[in-house]
Design a protein that fits this description.
The complex is a heterodimer. Helices cover 19% and strands 24% of the residues of chain A. Chain A is α+β, with helices and mostly antiparallel strands. The longest helix of chain A is centred in the middle third of the chain and has 13 residues. Chain A is globular, with a radius of gyration of 18 Å. Chain B has 4 domains: 105 residues, Alpha-Beta Complex (Sulfite Reductase Hemoprotein, domain 2); 158 residues, Sulfite Reductase Hemoprotein, domain 1 (2-Layer Sandwich); 94 residues, Sulfite Reductase Hemoprotein, domain 2, CATH 3.90.480; 139 residues, Sulfite Reductase Hemoprotein, domain 1, CATH 3.30.413.10. Chain B contains 18 helices and 21 strands. The model of chain B has no long low-confidence stretch (mean pLDDT 96). The chains are: A alpha+beta, B alpha+beta. The interface between A and B is large, with 34 and 54 residues.
């Protein structure tokens, strides 16, 4: 398996480092102070390949808090805060786009016919 | 029900203890993620977009009410109160914590459930017709053979590190409800000209990036030889398949590259070495396995009891459900009832813990405590007295699993897609939900007849899109979700891959396009009972293409 650090890093805009928390798999972002946060707002945002590589190296070295760290694109919103850069990252950040865990409708006898 | 013996119980308990130790060592840092990942995958634990996902095997789709209650409990205690039944007769929990997994697995083990071989390059959960043992058109219970194969392949050292995952399905009925022709090995139990029963052996079927319909390499294999022959196939696969290229490592590629005849010759040559060895099945062993499948003590009842006929006349809704969800049983006076997990606006295959508990209670009352899971992501009660159907209908409806859409346009198969899955490129569930809303009119759905829509969120095809009558495949183009539509695929005994309709359409247009395809079918069918598949086969996809792409 190729280490993320050995992968070619193409950075064409603002990016963050993201991973899944070891204990529960929750989506986390690497912060400026070398910790992890579940809030994208707290993420360190960089815009060059060397900076991203350095941030990623620190994240990968911390193999106990988070798993599968990688570089993810973000966009900077009008208020200056980072927003997910694509649909996959948006879903990771905000959760499934579908309601889960509850029956969708009233019993069928009352509908349709 | 199949009754597990002490060997099975010990095996599962030992695995839980082993996994508990592995999780502990991972959390303490003694194991790295690279070391831990293959261990968790051997127990069905994936890391998905938002959380760990636990996949639990339901061998040949048979569950006891006790097991279903245990699944409800795991959903409630360790997850978010629901589970997702998959196209491989498994169930998945999407939000489970790593530290909770050993306890969840211990609870599951207490009911004979586990996640072994639901992931990794091994022989996966062996699937069958969900109506095995009760279907009027079967020649015998396919689960006996699936169980023999399960026992033989579980933790088999030679098959624990195959070039790639390996899926086997078994059917024993005239109508193939187990999709055997899109499996690595499909076994079709049938009678030959001399009246003996044996297997047609099909190999090299599969969906995914490079779909193939399986090739028949042996028209008739005596039952005594099924283990040795499967072993020979797996050995040839193990020896010759590509381990250097993930995308070319499935047996379907090997069979295609070698050619079915050459592949069959290799298998036959290998088989000659082992066919009369210890794997030749002793009828006493088969009888012992068969005896562990317990059938209910059915009452002597007549078909079509008066209470049924009366309610059918009195209540059109009951009649619609009965025509749709209830199937003939091999025992007079009984029926097989399919529980639709496809309500309008629902996620296909999802059931809440409360629903699972309620279904388990109803199974105890009406189905001798037994539930089946089908590859179509619905459940079934296999042993319902026909006289109980009116009461059961009301009870199932109160639980939300009596939508009379089984086999119809809104009975959609869909993978979890990009809402959960780390491999997906596009969402599948919201597409399915929107389609169930568009086709909520059950009169229209019944008029359309059998029409299966299958949706996958990526090329890996967990939603079996290639074999949907209408197949929908999500792809990503420049950061946007697009969907390729195929027509006239089918997964039954006449399995075929669908034909591409045309260029992919954006997310917002998928439901419109499907509606357009369906409207075209209604106009183009020769007679009201010409099915969608028959119409497309007769006239090809071109008239559908013209209509869809002229409009959109």
């Amino acid at each position: 398996m190729t280490s993320p650090l050995e992968q070619k890093l193409k950075v064409t805009g603002p990016v963050v480092i993201t991973a899944n928390r070891l204990g529960d798999g929750a989506v986390v972002y690497r912060t400026r102070d070398g910790n992890w946060s579940t809030r994208l707002d707290d993420a360190a945002v960089v815009s060059t390949a060397p900076a991203a590589r350095e941030l990623l190296a620190g994240a990968v070295a911390d193999g106990l808090s988070a798993v599968g760290a990688y570089v993810a694109p973000v966009q900077i919103g009008p208020d200056g805060r980072p927003e997910p850069g694509n649909l996959r990252e948006r879903i990771r950040c905000t959760g499934p786009t579908v309601r889960c865990g509850a029956p969708a409708v009233a019993p069928a006898i009352t509908i349709g016919l | 029900m199949y009754i597990y013996d002490e060997f099975d119980r010990t095996l599962v308990a030992e695995r839980v203890a082993e996994f508990r130790d592995q999780v502990g060592r991972r959390i303490s840092g003694e194991l790295t993620e690279d070391e831990f990942k293959p261990l968790r995958l051997m127990n069905g634990v994936y890391l998905q977009l938002h959380a760990y996902m636990l996949r639990i095997a339901i061998p040949y789709g048979t569950l006891s009410s006790r097991q279903l209650r245990m699944l409800a409990h795991v959903g409630r205690r360790y997850d978010r109160n629901y589970g997702h039944f998959t196209t491989r007769q498994n169930i998945q929990f999407n939000w489970i914590k790593l530290e909770d997994l050993p306890d969840a697995m211990a609870d599951l083990a207490s009911a004979g459930l586990h996640g072994m071989q639901t992931s990794g390059n091994c022989v996966r959960n062996i699937t069958t017709d969900q109506w095995s043992g009760v279907a009027p058109d079967e020649i015998e219970d396919a689960r006996i053979w699936a169980e023999l194969l399960r026992q033989h392949t579980t933790l088999h050292p030679e098959f624990s590190f195959l070039p790639r995952k390996f899926k086997i399905a078994v059917t024993a009925a005239a109508q193939d409800r187990a999709a055997v022709k899109v499996h690595d090995i499909g076994l079709r139990l049938h009678r030959n000209g001399a009246g003996e029963t044996g297997f047609e052996v099909l190999v090299g079927g599969g969906l995914g990036r490079t779909p193939f319909i399986a090739k028949s390499i042996r028209p008739f294999l005596p039952k005594r030889d099924v283990l040795s022959y499967v072993e020979a196939i797996l050995r040839v696969y193990n020896q010759f398949a590509r381990r250097d290229n993930l995308y070319k490592s499935r047996i379907k590629i090997l069979v295609h590259d070698l050619g079915a005849e050459a592949f069959a010759r290799e298998v036959e040559a290998e088989w000659q070495h082992i066919k009369d060895g210890p794997l030749a099945l002793d009828p006493a062993v088969v009888a012992e396995i068969a005896a562990r499948f317990r059938y209910p003590e059915y009452a002597r009842l007549d078909d079509d009891p008066p209470e049924l006929t009366q309610l059918r006349k009195a209540d059109r809704r009951f009649d619609a459900w009965l025509c749709n969800a209830v199937t003939n049983h091999k025992v007079p006076g009984y029926a097989i009832v399919t529980l639709s997990l496809k309500p309008e606006g629902g996620a296909p295959g999802d059931a809440t813990s409360d629903q699972m508990d309620a279904i388990a209670d109803l199974a105890d009352r009406y189905s001798f405590g037994e539930i089946r899971v089908g590859h179509d992501q619905n459940l079934a009660f296999p042993h319902v007295a026909q006289r109980d159907l009116p009461e059961l209908w009301r009870a199932l409806d109160a639980v939300g699993v009596a939508t009379p859409n089984v086999g119809l346009v809104s009975d959609i198969i869909a993978c979890p897609g990009l809402d959960y899955c780390s491999l997906a490129n596009a969402r599948a569930i919201p597409v399915a939900q929107e389609l169930t809303r568009r086709f909520r009119d059950l009169d229209l759905a019944r008029d359309l007849g059998r029409l299966h829509i299958n949706i996958s969120g990526c090329i890996n095809a967990c939603g079996h899109h290639h074999v949907g009558h209408i197949g929908i495949l999500g792809v990503e183009k420049n950061g946007e979700e697009f969907y390729q539509i195929t027509l006239a695929g089918r997964a039954d005994e006449r399995a075929e891959l669908g034909t591409l309709l045309g260029p992919a359409v954006p997310y917002a247009k998928v439901a419109d396009v499907v509606e357009e395809v369906v409207a075209a079918y209604v106009e183009l069918r020769e007679r009201p009972n010409e099915t969608f598949i028959e119409t497309v086969k007769r006239i090809g996809v071109e008239p559908f293409k013209e209509r869809v792409y002229a409009t959109h």
